[in-house]
Design brief:
The protein is an alpha/beta fold. It is built from 13 helices and eleven strands. Strands 3, 4, 5, 6, 7, 8, 9, 10 and 11 form a nine-stranded mixed β-sheet that branches. Strands 1-2 form a two-stranded antiparallel ribbon. α4 crosses α12 and α11 packs across α13. The longest helix has 16 residues. The protein is globular, with a radius of gyration of 24 Å.
Length: 429
């Protein structure tokens, strides 16, 4: 749709997920629905008929369905091709602050009501006391975790033709761990066609330490690239340029893989008709918290499978090298070209979290030499400023302040200075 969504854009004050500032030009994951045009499978409505109250306002009802059911596996999208002449569609929602506060109360933790109220005071100078107080007349809505489990999924989309997989692995000083990854890949019931290894060592006099690449026989082709330039973003981009198979598996060099991982991934791809999968990637004894297949708000550069045809449109942002946020940026690039990222908890990769290896010097960012430390990191600010709505950015600012300073309001002046320094540096990245 071309107009605004039913729920006010001010929802960005409390929701920093990628599902808020959606790209309406492509098929984009979002729980934000519209009664102008759309559809929902009858099996979903039947499953939810006794679970969600039938609101007087139909737009409120369908947005409630999207927000509650999306984390439980309901796949929700904004689809521009539903509308032939979108330029003629104009929505005329009267922005109702009572509805906004009610929606936040019924679909978010209670503390977000207070943060919404506070953000409106700080950034808009508005004291919406009555909408705030009226929200406490409502109870939070919840769905049974298993409510959608009985609905069978079989997409008509054809996502696999050849089923070939190339594997991309950047590595630095982890000879033994990389060897174990290669042994796991060689034991796959569905073998990769090629494994692309980009080995880094910043010592200009060094040579490769990966002697087993040539000394042993492997059941796939290995493309080995050695470079003295450090940086995972650069290494992954080099490797991605070498991908030839239909699918690419982005892997870390310190993981362990079950023998049927590739096979199970392709089964899920065929079942769901999707172009990107991210797996669970936990350390030993770490508890699996997210147990439902769902549209993920994250992307893992060490545990994801992507259809390689999209590599011509995305890359790891080298401006974020040695910082934070490159995974988030890559995932948001994908969503903004219409590629959804689906998380499958039963597809498991063990992350060893091996000690940092290789000949490395700590990278010193120019802002680290200043007297006042920027908050957040300018690389994080760069990503947020690029993809967040302005209201999401301001909401994030408030949350970050409380995380760093608790309730010390006297620290706000210093924090605001740190924030502005971060914003200035983010524009130079």
């Amino acid at each position: 749709m071309s107009g605004d969504y039913f729920i006010s854009k001010r929802i960005g004050y409390v929701d920093s997920s990628p599902f808020i500032n959606s790209n309406k030009k492509v098929n984009y994951p979002t729980w934000q629905m519209s009664s102008d045009i759309g559809g929902i499978h009858s099996s979903v409505l039947l499953a939810l008929k006794d679970q969600i109250q039938l609101d007087k306002n139909f737009d409120y009802f369908i947005n409630s369905i999207g927000k509650l059911a999306m984390p439980l596996g309901l796949l929700c999208y904004s689809e521009p091709h539903l509308i032939v002449e979108s330029s003629k569609l104009q929505t005329n929602f009267r922005k109702n602050n009572f509805i906004l506060f009610q929606f936040v109360r019924q679909h978010y933790k209670v503390q977000w009501i207070f943060l919404l109220f506070l953000n409106l005071v700080i950034y808009e100078g508005k004291v919406l006391l009555f909408p705030f107080l009226s929200s406490f007349l409502y109870r939070r809505r919840n769905l049974k975790q298993e409510i959608l489990d009985e609905i069978e999924v079989q997409s008509s989309n054809t996502a696999i033709e050849k089923g070939t997989i190339d594997v991309v692995i950047p590595t630095m000083g982890r000879k033994k761990h990389l060897y174990d990854v290669l042994r796991d890949l060689s034991a796959q019931t569905h073998l990769p066609a090629k494994v692309i290894i980009v080995e880094q060592n910043t010592d200009t006099n060094s040579v490769s330490e990966l002697d087993y690449l040539n000394n042993e026989k492997w059941p796939f082709h290995i493309k080995h690239i050695f470079t003295h330039q450090a940086g995972a973003c650069n290494a992954r981009n080099i490797a991605l340029a070498e991908v030839e198979s239909e699918w690419v598996f982005l892997s870390d060099d310190d993981v362990r893989l079950k023998a049927d991982l590739n096979e199970k991934v392709l089964e899920k791809v065929a079942q769901y008709g999707i172009n990107c999968i991210t797996t669970s990637c936990l350390q030993k004894d770490e508890v699996l918290r997210y147990t439902k297949i769902h549209q993920s708000g994250i992307f893992g550069s060490g545990n994801s499978f992507l259809k390689s045809e999209f590599l011509k449109e995305v890359s790891f942002n080298k401006s974020l090298e040695f910082g934070y946020g490159e995974d988030t940026d890559f995932g948001l690039q994908l969503r903004n070209i219409g590629v959804d990222i689906i998380y499958f908890p039963e597809l498991r990769i063990l992350h060893l979290k091996a000690p940092i290896g290789g000949f490395r010097n700590k990278f010193i960012f120019p802002w680290e030499l200043e007297g006042v430390s920027p908050k957040p990191s300018p690389t994080i600010m760069y990503v947020h400023s690029k993809y967040f709505s302005n209201l999401q950015l301001l909401g994030y600012k408030t949350v970050l302040f409380f995380k760093l300073n608790k309730f010390n309001v006297f620290a706000f002046s210093k924090f605001n200075k740190q924030w502005e320094i971060s914003r200035n540096w983010s524009k130079k990245i």
